[in-house]
Amino acid sequence: MSAHDPGAATPAELLRRRVADDPSNPLVTFYDDATGERVELSARTFDNWVAKTANFLVDGLGAEPGTRVVLVLPPHWQTAVWLLACWSAGLVAEPVDPAEVKGRSGEPVKPSGPYILAAAQEVLDDVVDDAEAEEVVGLSLHALGGPLADCPPGVTDYADEVRSYGDRFDPVPEVTPETPALSVTNATLGGGELVAAARAAVEKWELDARDRLLVDMPFATLDGLLIALLAPLASGASVIIQRNFDKATLDRRLTVEHVTVVAGPPGPNDASGHPYRLA
Asked: Hey, how many other C-beta atoms are within 10 angstroms of the C-beta on 15?
């Protein structure tokens, strides 16, 4: 069965089918133009990270179906991993743009706790004292998952912890398409609704398994998550996620990465950043 088989009813099932059908080709490629970093993950490697992270959340942090996980993370391959790990374990992911919490030290990221809080190194000082967070996990976002440069007291270093967990995660029987999966823009969506939205995006943007999407969009919006993660999974396409995007690299990257669809950088006839297909 293909990755875009209509029988897949949750994001985790979309990933499992992608791994079964196309384990070796790139699923996610990540660029950070500020550091020159490039990371490429096949579906199998991405799935291993998802499984380790889900096991870490469940066995290491005691997360149960329905637990809220607030993700103060930029567009990044590890952010995509955390989202799928949450959905695999039946947790409710709440993505937040890191820019929204900078300079707000001592204030809860979300005023309605409790939750597990996963935050990028760049904002740890702003969130470490969040009284609503039951656990605070820090992500360095270094190349290939290196540890935090400085781990504040009370913070769990994701990179140090996650590698010891198993790279297989058994599906949680309580997780159904109706299980809440994502809280974004004052709305909570179940896994089935996310898959339905992903399929609608695939139809709207006419995506298929031959496509390579170049994406420079925030992960704190439903549109960003659809184009950068869910629609590629639903269509069999692969995605290139950019951070600290340098426009001077665009033309060469389109050629080198065989890009067919661009989302984020303004298109030739549309300054909105909506997805557009290259001629």
From this structure: 23
